[in-house]
Amino acid sequence: MAGVKIISLVLCSLGVFMSLRPHWLYIDQFIQTYYQNITDDELYDTIYPVKDYSGLILLIIVILVTDYVKYKPIIVLQGFFSVILMSLFNWDQQIIPLIVSQVFHGFVMATNIAFYAYIFAVADSEKYKLSTCLSQISVLFGIFLGNLLAVLFLSLNITGLGTINLISFAFSVVTLIVALMLPHVKPRIPTTREIIERELQLPSGLSIPETVTKSPWEVDRRPSMHSTGTQGIMDTYTHINDPAFTAYARSNMYSDIDTSSLGFYGDYSINEQYTSSIDSESNENSREDNSNTTEVPSSQPDTTQKDKINKFLKDLKKAYSKKLVIYWSSWLIFSICGHLMLEDNFRRLLNEIVPGRNSPLVYDASVSTLAALLGIIPVIIYGVIKGTWTVYSEPILAILGLFTCLLYCLLANINNIWAIYSLYIIYYLLFQLMFVVALYQIGDVLQSRRYGFIFGMNLFIAVFLKVILQSIQGYRQTLHLPITTQITVMGGIFGLYGLSFLTKMLYSLIDLYRQSGGCCGNYSNPQDRDLLVASTS
User: Fold this and answer.
1) Residue 416: which domain range?
2) Where would one find the signal peptide in this protein (predicted)?
3) What is the pLDDT of residue 281?
């Protein structure tokens, strides 16, 4: 227990320091102050997009290796990238170092997935929800603290933008040190649920015969957990003499599981009925073969590598066969895409809607600071409440898509600055809450520990979608639409997203209505009526 608490403390400390960057609040002003002759169009159309391109390139590698190297090396690599990024801002105020800094900014963004994957790799499955919430709370607190320092230093004339940049560099060094303190991910002991699910899986060599005939491979009827009856009576299975089955029966994955500790009827596993005979027969054959054969060079490394690839593909197929993974991954993709677009262009949006504002830097920074602080509240509430939202995923995503569409359209078309600030805070709270919900919903159903791949793919598609949208809408060589129109288009995408889930949900309800013969026709039981909603998910 003490080790788990220490890991949680280090992980939360890392979340604070990795997001504690006071200079990001005034990065536009810093660049235009210290880098001469850079216009807004050059900054947003030429320099900032480098971050997205470099992030996409590195994400291809990060997606493939994060799970293989067990997360910590990628987190440490992110710390190195962050130090290099902040060094470039302090090194030389020339255009080439500025562009290179955006390359490393993209690298930092790409490697950020390892932080969230690490949460699920080290936490107990029963603590996934709490661990995810605590980690995101630490990130939000770091953002709030960094923004607060920047606002206080500049509004009170304590220091300038250059000093704030040096402070951010110091925090990046601390981030690297804390990342090095993270323990390596060790093989996790399977939970009771995972043991049960593995024990219930039949080897590929077992089949249920239509007509049972006695054979040397027939398994007699005995009490076991492998049945559906209340007495735990096992059906009769016929084992096919297959080498794959023999290897499976001998493996630790199956035969060493003791189901008696789980409180099931019977004190032995089904494999105990035949593994002993298989092993004894195998040993006899092995002794005979060893006496008559010579040593042959082994090709095991090639087989092992092929098995790893096959297992990797099988894990991905299993992960993406789950509706929850697809549903909540789709939400992460669109929400991250919209969030990155809004955050990168929020100052431009305000200047376009309300030009000539008084003290825009102080007010904009204060709103961002307040949003980060208030964003902690819904995450805390979600972390302490009981239960999950798994059953109601489709209705939730339908409502989320439509409500987010409304927020984006209002943000882009309201001319009152205080209304925009209020809507932005509401949006920020909603995004942070649903980001945590989506991470938990995905991580909770993944049993193959491919967190880095799933989270990385979501980020890759989100950034790729953002690049496509901006390439079509924002650049001078293309449509060059106003930022208000671009945000409205993003809102329309959220509207289509919400309508797709709403249509699917309504279609499922209509289908259930027809099958039941009318309004609640055969669903007189309250529990059965709940299925009308639950089954839509």
Assistant:
1) 315-448+450-537
2) none
3) 46
